[in-house]
Every structure is written in C-alpha cells, then in structure tokens.
Amino acid sequence: MDSRGSKLNGVIKMPKNPFACSECHMILADGIDQCSHHPAAPVSSDWTGYVVVLDPSRSEIANRLNIEVPGNYALKVNIR
Ligand SMILES: [Zn+2]
Fold this sequence. Notes:
The chain contains one helix and four strands.
C-alpha cells in the first residue's frame, strides 16, 4: 500500500468562523473582512447565534436587531 497515493483528506478541520459586522451583525462571506454597508465598523470572528433572516419585515428577531436586509446574521458579536 502506498500511503502517498491514497489521499483521502480524512481529517476535516473545523472551518474558522467567518467575520461578522459589529454594526449590523451580518455574517460576512468567506474571506471578507469588511462589511459592505459599514466599512468603518469593526468586524469580529468571535460571535454567537446564527440567524438566517429571509423576510426582515416579518421577523421578530430582525426587528429586534434592526435588520432590514435579508441575510445571515449573528445574534451577538464580541469585539475584542
Ligand atoms: Zn454592517
């Protein structure tokens, strides 16, 4: 058996948290470290609570977080 020839990629690393905007809590796409709506706001990969908002006008959570744009959001964003 040639171990070099059987790369199964069996070890799956936990992907790092993407960044979330501290201003609007939007979770940014992989590799993006700046919110397109708040370029001056700090971003953080230290956040909790994944929320998908499809219809902000009908979502209580969106209302509470002042979310106006559908997307993926973090409930809490911790800034160091
Ligand atoms: Zn933002």
